[in-house]
TrEMBL record:
Protein localization: Cytoplasm, Cytoskeleton, Cilium axoneme
Highest rank taxon of the organism: Eukaryota
The protein's name: Cilia- and flagella-associated protein 206
Species name: Clunio marinus
Lineage of producing organism: Eukaryota, Metazoa, Ecdysozoa, Arthropoda, Hexapoda
PANTHER family per the UniProt record, alphabetical: CILIA- AND FLAGELLA-ASSOCIATED PROTEIN 206
């Protein structure tokens, strides 16, 4: 406090304090903000010169870089742990997928696995893919944060050097010249402080996501995964891509008016559904990465990727069937809408009233007898919210109100007149005027006696 008091007294005289107290509220706040920036700059400069007393101001230029390295290494470790689980689950499902001639997807595992265990593993794969994307996004943010830290640390050091050059070998410096420099120094320090807070938020988000992932992960995860994987060797997405990148789509077999092959895929084109195979997602609710090097299919101004040529062949036959099934899947799994970031697409589909059930009925007529089990989730509030404020839904409140009305009927209304009631009445008063009277006193008389 002593150092702040000395810094404050060095920029304001007693007359300035009196003028500051006489300012209006808004002007006083603006003046106070400027004074705070100047005083903070003086304290930071004194700390750099070694003249500061006991002010506990952190050295952000060093602590920021250390915090960045520790948080980045933590995110990298989390990503490696996620990818280990993702690679195991993806390898297990990839080795068990079989596509029938009737556009159906079957899963044939080496060991006996119950259907509920398979569904749980599908959900865990989606969960880990979500976690992977979030962590990669955090790592991408860390790169931009690092560039900002380096830039502002360099700018902070330059501003300190300019201040040293200005005050060097001088006993007094004009306030017009030095005060703006102190304000600029404080501004840079505040930006570094904000970056420190941003790094802490990155770490907290990662810890929270890790906690959610551990809560959703079952204790029997290792046993079920071992049964799903069987004797297959765990492969990464890159290894799987290299094995199939020599395969190519034949453009002649897909020569239709509204379908085209993009081979190789354009660099600026975005593959639908985050690059996962459209066919496997529609038929099996499995997130299996596609192989863009084989080629991608452009239909209805959207690009779709596939993990095998066979999956692409089935999609080419009736593409709207698979896209509608995916939209139906999204409507029953809200987390997938957020995961693929296609809220606007689903909203537009609902506005256009795309009836998936009607399409499936048409498919049944063409193919023959078939049964389709489907779950439909209705809207939460299909009718606009219009609540009557006088409505009482609680039965006990209605009973209390009835009792109050009953007690009110038993009351009697009486009238009474008090001594102050006359204030409300019209009262006429009569008074007599002041009489002008004159009086005569007895006169003094003198008498002569004999």
């Amino acid at each position: 406090m002593m150092e702040i008091s000395n810094a404050l007294s060095s920029i304001m005289t007693e007359t300035d304090f009196e003028n500051f107290g006489a300012l209006e509220s808004q002007n006083r706040m603006e003046s106070l903000k400027e004074i705070r920036l100047i005083v903070c700059g003086i304290v930071l400069f004194n700390k750099d010169t070694g003249q500061g007393s006991t002010m506990d101001i952190p050295d952000l230029t060093k602590s920021l870089l250390k915090s960045y390295e520790s948080i980045e290494s933590l995110l990298q470790f989390t990503l490696c742990d996620i990818m280990d689980r993702v690679n195991i689950l993806t390898t297990a499902f990839d080795g068990a997928i079989e596509i029938t001639k009737s556009n159906k997807l079957n899963l044939n595992f080496q060991s006996c696995v119950e259907q509920n265990e398979i569904d749980v593993m599908k959900d865990l794969l989606i969960l880990n893919r979500q976690h992977e994307i979030y962590v990669r996004k955090l790592l991408s943010n860390m790169k931009s944060i690092k560039s900002r830290i380096e830039s502002h640390v360099h700018s902070y050091g330059e501003k300190l050097m300019k201040l040293h050059d200005i005050v060097q070998y001088r006993s007094a410096v004009p306030s017009v010249q030095i005060f703006p420099k102190f304000k600029e120094l404080t501004g840079e320090w505040m930006i570094l402080h904000d970056l420190s807070y941003t790094l802490s938020q990155q770490s907290q988000i990662n810890n929270y996501l890790q906690h959610l992932s551990e809560l959703c992960r079952q204790q029997q995860f290792d046993d079920v995964v071992h049964k799903l994987l069987g004797e297959n060797q765990v492969e990464t997405d890159l290894t799987r891509l290299r094995k199939r990148q020599h395969l190519k789509f034949e453009s002649t077999s897909y020569a239709t008016s509204n379908i085209s092959i993009v081979q190789p895929p354009e660099s600026n084109s975005e593959i639908g559904y985050l690059g996962f195979c459209t066919f496997v997602l529609a038929e099996g609710r499995i997130l299996l990465p596609s192989v863009p090097e084989m080629g991608t299919i452009l239909w209805n101004q959207k690009t779709y990727g596939f993990y095998s040529i066979e999956a692409a062949d089935h999609f080419i036959g009736k593409p709207e069937r698979f896209t509608n099934k995916i939209q139906d899947l999204m409507l029953n799994n809200v987390h997938l809408i957020l995961f693929f970031d296609i809220y606007n697409v689903i909203k537009l589909a609902k506005a256009c009233q795309i009836d998936v059930d009607a399409y499936m009925e048409n498919e049944v007529r063409n193919v023959g007898e078939a049964k389709v089990e489907r779950e439909i989730q209705t809207e939460l509030h299909p009718i606009s919210y219009d609540k009557d404020q006088r409505n009482i839904w609680n039965l006990w409140d209605l009973r209390r109100k009835a009792i109050d009305l009953t007690n009110l009927k038993r009351k009697k209304t009486t009238s009474a007149q008090t001594s102050l009631t006359y204030f409300k009445l019209d009262i006429g008063n009569q008074r007599y005027g002041v009489r002008q009277k004159s009086s005569q006193t007895v006169t003094n008389k003198a008498m002569n006696t004999e």
